[in-house]
Design a protein that fits this description.
Shape: globular
CATH superfamily: NAD(P)-binding Rossmann-like Domain
Radius of gyration: 19 Å
CATH class: Alpha Beta
Distance between the termini: 53 Å
CATH topology: Rossmann fold
Number of domains: 1
Length: 269
Amino acid sequence: MTKTVLITGASTGIGYETAILFQKKGWNVVATMRSPQKASPDLQNVLCLDVTDPNSIEQAIATTLEKFRSIDVLINNAGYSLIGAFEACTPEQIERQFATNVFGLMSVTRAVLPYFREQRSGTIINIASIGGKMAFPLYSLYHSTKWAIEGFSDSLQYELEPFNIRVKVIEPGPIKTDFYGRSLDLAQKPGLTAYDAFAAKVIPNLKKAGETGSPPQKVAEIIYQAVTDDSKKLRYPAGGNAGMLLLMRKFLPDSLFSKIVRNSTIRES
């Protein structure tokens, strides 16, 4: 029987390329997004799903089950990035960062779990980042959300294992998507200029890393591998030299790794 995958944040980038890849592999693909009217015609089954709206989540899941009778894989991909000095972030920006990247992911997961438990199978793919294991300047809130996803996934795998439900974490490095454009939110506080010189050095270097990053198709391929390898492997580095960077962070002392980050980001571009 053809399996079904539900993907959040599938309008562009990693989510879109993942949907296209699974379609090519013969899966039933439900590509969800906040604005389905803007969806590419290449996507076969598009639904509205806003991860911050519980009603939207329930409706998308119900529609998927009505059409395909089951959901075999959930890919939690929806997210966005808030960049800037923490002091400049508004309470609304802080709330949105966590509501989308953490609480939204948890809400979709919680809504799907009853169906996975009932069928005693399922795979949950959480898109984290190398930024869930290491940190770069001006990303304090984004990193906070990705570290949360890492910890959430690490613990969740144990409680779901008795139901034959697998949890897997994808850790992309710099990827060439609109993550550094449309999906980027810049924190700015009127009258606060103390961080301007620092940001002027850092932001061009961060954007350059994205512009020279791996294509999102590389991450889609790793996601497909994670779904289909029948293993209990938890973490999968994906593109953008992710594997090498994660190894460096794991084995280098904090002082040396921090020096590398400073030298690569806090300099004139």
